[in-house]
Design goal:
Layout lengths: L2 E8 L3 E10 L3 E11 L6 E6 L4 E6 L7 H16 L3 E9 L10 E2 L2 H8 L9 H14 L5 E5 L9 H4 L5 H4 L10 H14 L8 E6 L3 E7 L2 E5 L20 H10 L4 H10 L2 H6 L5 H6 L3 H25 L4 E5 H6 L1 H10 L9 H5 L13 E4 L4 H12 L8
Parallel strand pairs: 1-6, 6-8, 9-12, 12-13
Antiparallel strand pairs: 1-2, 2-3, 3-4, 4-5, 7-8, 9-10, 10-11
Helix pairs in contact: 1-3, 6-15, 11-13
Amino acid sequence: MDDYALVLNAGSSSLKFCVFARAPRDAWRLEARGQIEGIGTAPRLSAKDGASGKLADERLDGTVRDGRSALEALAGWLRSRYDRARLLGVGHRVVHGGARFAGPAVVTPAVLDELRSLVPLAPLHQPHNMAAIEAVFERLPGVPQVACFDTSFHRGQPPVAEILPLPAELRRSGLQRYGFHGLSYEYVASVLPEVAPEIARRRVIVAHLGSGASVCALREGKSVDSSFGFTALDGLCMSTRPGALDPGVVLHLFQGLGLSASEVEAILYKKSGLVGISGTSNDMRELLGSGEPAARLAVDYFVYQAAKQIGALAAVLGGIDALVFTAGIGENSAEIRRRVSEACAWLGVDLDPEANAGKGPRISTAASRASAWVVPTNEELMIARHTGRLLGLVEARA
């Protein structure tokens, strides 16, 4: 491998990464995928190659205490494997691009300042995204970087889909519906012309069901509306987040129960959703295998809310032509796909049990009025495409 691009997704306790080699015909080829997890506690680096063969699984020493030291450890591992290769650029997943960034951006000091101003809108994610960008600037000042936003794909929605019904003076401070998981939806939209050309330009609802979960309405391959709003707490029930919640509940947590801001934040981001209902696990696989009533209720609620939100977006689109499942649960749980599809039978979805068990890609019957599909997402490849295009490395095809 002579040239490569690095894709980073920095979180509070993990640093996920992908190495993409420049390939013929302006494509990217996955060379390695991995992560450094347990940052600050028990750090470990693991990685696999593009064929899922193990490249690394090693404990790191106690000096890996934060994102910067994790990046140092990753840089050392990359040098040991790709010492003769040239790093062409670094692409970052950045959760929030605000209202201005309607697409990925080459990171400059001015852009970095703007992204820092968005930290209050995504306090649990944005600081770690920024720290990774800053660390690359410090360690590799000559390597260009590209920020790819989870919000960008949703810019350009109708005003009624973006507005929050609050006083204008508050809305001017940045209060609006942004939507997230945009890199996932953008990737799915980009491959539909190849995977399912008959629906690519029609009315499609994509269900990104994973630890974080949302649904997005597509028309002509563009985002029309989504279940996420101002933050990534809205919409569907998630692994540890509640999804749509009466704002009065939050007021009660403060005023009625006297909880602090940090306590409420922890409840909303870490203690609710599947784990809050079940009281035992945030893992859908464990909940599906459990016979406990609370676990069954958590699964029932997840399916109920997914079907409810799909119905709402179907109203926005005036009906649907296709339902697409993606992300960890959507791609791997035939049971959840079955239950959600059956709840959407009124929309014309007629599931084919055998195709669903085999993961499709089409999982509905030939007679189904609205087809159903499984399309694996690939946010990292989407970031690599954007990085290559903005830096003039490739034509952004893969």
